[in-house]
Amino acid sequence: MIPQKMKTLNWKLLALAALGFLLSCGQKSKQANSNIEPAKETVVAEPEYDTNNPKTILAAVAQAHGGWNDLWKKGDVEYTYTYHYPSTGKTDLSLERYIFGTEESYGKYSKHEINSMPNSEGELEQFFDGTSTHLKLNGQAIDEEEHLSMADFLRRTNYYWFTMPYKLNDKAVVAKYLGTEDYNGTTYDKIEVAYDKDLTGKEQNDVYIVLVNPETRLVDRFYFSLPYFGVEEPVIAANYEYEDIDGQMISTKRTYFMPGPDGAYAEEAGVVQTLTNITFGNGFTRENLMQ
What interhelical angle do 11-32 and 145-162 show, nearest 10? Predict the structure, then answer.
């Protein structure tokens, strides 16, 4: 059964809501299991992968993606990010830069037709300095709370998406094995990822159902809920495709699908995200991140 509110939930609301749910999961849980310090990982040739202990599967997922320690040592990343609505042709196009040690995040938009100031023209810059977010349009500071709030969502959330394989292994996560699911000719292990409200500080937390490929140990597909918008069950689907970039498996193509009233998913994605021109170890600091 698809909740009535979900039937009318459009992709603009999904974009806004997804920002909210990622931020809400990320901020509080970051306090419980901060990635500001290097993770204490033990690299083994064959990591444990036990369906009786789904936390081991999430740990194996993190290692299969290259490991947090490896990402930490790279220091920073830069890439071109395209966020696209196939149905309307609208696009957000940004140059993204993150510093892993401090989670500082910078985005420079040459196109911003969807999420941030879509009715304004010119170059848009967002910068999260680890504490607060700053916004400029054509070099002029923007102080309106509405625009600053969206910029803050995007800066924190884009970082979260990039580091998602490691965030799934957060201390606040409550993992449950749900059996297997066949999709596109592959039998996946299905893990429910919820959050302990005592650690997140939220009464209502979002839920993932992640499909882990037991051979590659990557999350090729997952479902998530948006209870704030009446989507109580994790039925919104995301498909991820990966590339090996300097030892890290990066989701360079992400497609998102909404179910219809009958529960079936359309063949065409509602949102397509692509990451290109990815480079690590650029030597970014707070002083030169925006240059």
Answer: 70
What string of DSSP letters covers 1-70? ---HHHHT--HHHHHHHHHHHHHHHHHHHHHHS-SSSPP-----SS----TTSHHHHHHHHHHHTT-HHH
Dist. CA 36–CA 224, nearest whole Å? 26
CA distances from 168 to 93, 134, 144, 207, 267 (A): 27, 28, 33, 11, 27
Q: What kind and span of H or E run contains 200?
A: helix 197-200
pLDDT in tens, 55-90: 999 999 999 999 999 999 999 999 999 999 999 999
Average pLDDT over residues 22-48: 48
Geometric angle at alpha carbon 280, from 33 and 138, rounded to 5°: 95
CA-atom Rg of the chain in angstroms = 18
95-125 pLDDT, tens digit each? 999 999 999 999 999 999 999 999 999 999 9
Alpha-carbon span 76 to 98, nearest angstrom? 5
The pTM (predicted TM-score) of the whole model is: 0.85
**Residues near 144 by beta carbon (within 8 Å), at least 6 away in sequence:** none
CB atoms within 10 A of CB 116: 21
Identify the residue whose tokens are 């809501």: 17
Cβ atoms of 220 and 238 within 8 Å: the answer is no
